[in-house]
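## tool: complex_structure
## caller: assistant
## args:
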Amino acid sequence: MPELPEVELARSTIEEAGLGRTIVDVDDADDWVCRPHAPGEIRAALVGRRLTAAHRRGKTMWCDTSQEDGEDAGPRLGLHLGMSGRIIVRTAEGGTVHGGDPVRGVDGTDAAVAKAEWYRFTLVFEDGGSLRLFDKRRLGRVRLDPDLEALGPDAAEIGVADFRARVGRGTAPLKARLLDQSVLAGVGNLLADETLWQARQDPHRPAGELSADELTALHRSLRTATEAAVRHGGVHTGEVISHRVKAGRCPRCGADMATGRVGGRTTWWCTAEQQG
DNA sequence: ACTCGTGTTAGCTG
DNA sequence: TCAGCTAACACGAG
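## result:
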C-alpha cells in the first residue's frame, strides 16, 4: 500500500496520537527491520524520551524526540513502511485510536488473523499504549537518524518550475523518472500510473522529450492525484486503479487498457489516450 | 508448486 | 563518473 498518500496518513496518525507520551520500553529485536542497528540499540536511545514531532519527505517518515535532563535533543526515529507496513497507535486502554485494523485494511483482506510476529517494532508508552510497525513482508525499516540526502523534493510540495527542471530530462522512460526517489520523493507504482493516465501521457516516452507545457500539465496531474489520494484514504482510490486488470477498459474513453513493464514495474496504460 | 508484488538498493553495463 | 537497468531482498497471497 504505502506510497506518499498512505505515508502522509500514517504521519498524521503519529502526530495526532503518538506525540508527547513517554517511552518506557522498545521492542527492536527484529535486526532485519532495524538494520544496521543491533538489537537494543534503538531501545537504549529512546527509553525515557518522548516523540515531539512527526515529519515526512516522500515515503520516509521521521520523528523528533525530546531531550533528557542534561542532554542534547534526542535522536530522530526514522520509519519507512516498505511495501506492506502500517503504523498502529494504541491508547492507554489498548484500543486502536488510529491506523485501523492491522489486517482488515484498505487492501481488503479480512480472513487472516494478525500474527504477533508481524509486529516488527514497538514503542511502549508510560500510559500503557503503544506505537507499532505492522508489516507482513518485513520490507519496512526503522532506524535512528535516517539519511535524507538521497531524496529529491517531496512530490506533494515541489513547485512547477522545479518539477519541470528535475523530471523533464534524460532518456529514461517518463514513468521511471517519476519513480526515481532522488528526482522526486513519494511517487510509487500506482500513483505513477494514475498521474500518467490523468495527464494522458505515454509511460514509455523519454522524459527529456516532454515540452514545458506538457510538464506543467503533468505537475498538475500529480498534484491532483496526490491530493485526492490523501483525501480518499490511499492511492488505491485513484480513478484508473481498479481498471488495471486483465480486459480492463479506460474509465474515460472505454478503450482497452494495456499492460507491460516500465521502469521495472508492472504498468497499465490506455491504448488510445496514452499512445500505447 | 510457482508467480507476483503499492519499495529500496547493491551492483553491473555502456 | 553518470544514467539506466536488473536482480535480490522477505514473505504472504493467489
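## assistant note: Residues 1-3, 6, 59, 80-84, 107, 137, 139-141, 179, 181, 188-191, 234-236, 241, 265-266 of chain A lie near DNA strand B (CB under 10 Å from a C1'). Confidence is low (pLDDT under 50) at residues 103-112 of chain A. Handing back to user.
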